Amino acid sequence: MASELDVMAVAVPAASAVAAEMARGGWLSLREALRRFFRRDGESSVERQLELLDEAQQTLVEAAEEDRGGLRSQLEQRLVLQLAAYLDRYPDMGEELAALLPATQDDAPSEGAPALTAQNNTNSQIVQASGNLDAGSGGINYGVPPRNPRA
Question: For the chain, first and last CA: distance in Å?
Answer without folding.
Answer: 60
